[in-house]
Amino acid sequence: xxxxxxxHRYMMSLLLFALSSLSAAWCADVVPHSEAVVPQDSAVxxxxxxxxxxxxxxxxxxxxxxxSVVSGEQLHQAERMNMLPxxxxxxxxxxxxxxxxxxxxxxxxAAGGITVRGLQxxxxxxxxxxxxxxxxxxxxxxxxxxxxxxxxxxxxxxxxGPSSLLYGSNGMGGVVNIITRGAQxxxxxxxxxxxxxxxxxxxxxxxxxxxxxxxxxxxxxLYQRSDNHRQDMGFYQYGGxxxxxxxxxxxxxxxxxxxxxxFAASNPGTEMAPLLEARQWINRGNADITLQNNYDRVSGAxxxxxNFGRHKINDGHDxxxxxxxxxxxxxxxxxxxxxxxxxxxxxxSWFTVGLDYQRIAGECWNADRVTDERLNRRxxxxxxxxxxxxxxxxxVYADVRQRVASWLMLQAGIRYDHHSAAGSxxxxxxxxxxxxxxxxELKLTAGKGFRVPSLREMYLYGAANPDLEPERLxxxxxxxxxxxxxxxxxxGANVFYLRASDLxxxxxxxGKMMNYNTGSTTHCxxxxxxxxxxxxxxxxxxxxxxxxxxEIVLAAPSYKGFLGATMHLKHWEASLxxxxxxxxxxxxxxxxxxATASDSGNSSQKDEAIKENVTLLGATLAYxxxxxxxxxxxxxxxxxxxYQLVDGYPMPRATVMAGVxxxxxxx
Length: 667
Hints:
5 helices; single chain; mainly beta; 22-stranded antiparallel beta barrel; five-stranded mixed sheet
């Protein structure tokens, strides 16, 4: 842990390093504007192509939204089974909590919550997608962190800011879109990987990719386990994925995939209030099938998807209390149909129309822990009876991008969304892109985001309130993107201001504690990211984000900075990452205030944030004795910092893991 002064010192040093690197590169190799962009057919470093901000393939420079791309290399270079640590490193404004070496868990004491600009996936305000399809727990309306597996990802695209125009509810604060991997060239390739490290942690992964003509397949299996650094904090997980595809022609293709994961996690409780027998057994799965078309002036897709979960949870008990005689059981499912088509009716014009339908279902009950028989009683005292509910959501949307001059593009869209319980919502969004030079863009956007209440908030437990309104926000953003030295340097900077209203909170109203739409709040901040491909050996990446929130927000750093370097030299590969976190709120406690004359002697409560500052250093070193074999070692928290990101759950100090990967077939 470091103090506030040290935190500001680290923050300034990282910012100065980033600015000095940019300045040095600019001064050393300035080229005229007309020569700054390398032609498409000869460029080595090209602008990323993304799909998340538009539903169709586009360069980030041609869309108004702020999008970060985490490449497959960045995801896999640290040899982690879960992708959240890499996203937290490489995406400014995004942060994910952790509680141990391996595993995030669910229910009380869980970690893995994703925060984007102070808005949280745990509250359903940030959506996780797989190939554009929503992935969240149907009852509690949030993603399950342990289901976010690196093995399935070719890359991850993160839209920082409202994405409800294209993705509806839960895209209120942004989306994390996992673009899945698949065989791209003819041939067959098999990969095997093993790793072992601190606290008896073990991981194994096997995959096979094949392509022959129009047919392609991709199969992956994984297993991981850890005792973790505290007693009764064990974790294990196994799962797999199958993806099949067929290209009928250069214009039409059909693909489908199925992913399944099972994990079990133990929750030891906080250090001050340990728990016994607190365990969770979770099954999560998803499946989809997609028909795509791609012509010069028309492209689109029709897809059907289904994700589901089966949960069994023992919330544990204090050592002074008797063991629970029941388990919490739940089933949930999120199914949908998505169709969209993008047209280019004339030069410089893109017109996208889409239709979405979702069926959200959830059922939960208490079951005897021995016989698994359903118990015909209330789930807890003063709580609602077991939940068995189905909701529906249908929406249509249109998004238009029009280049009105070589230096000016306009973007505007509208969505009409109807939810069977929360009613109807209009979602507008607009933006302006100004290109003062071919290698740079200035973007101004304004957009609305919203989130309908979850099944839990409306129908489950004593706080349930079926009359809740959707949460809403408006976000305003000014962003600058620039590419230098033929794309070897890319950087972006932006400032944003958002105002949210009707936020849902568990609070007192008219003498009753319930879920209510409480009021409004504002968040504002600034973000910077930069990548410098120095040469074929070295690459640098840095990003920084500042956040100010009107209210106290858990797991939302007031400053997050990252500086990373990667090296590829003959048989050697290495990566080094330094992350600085300042002002991470780990808990909120109420503090009694002294009575004053103005409040007639009544005492009051004031919220106080418990915050953490920490500097984290991680590194990975790999050696290839032959091209098909890689031996690697990874170290985390190499500065051996004492810190916690979830209140009462201290993180381990320095840990290591080592392993070997073997590749057979086409590389």
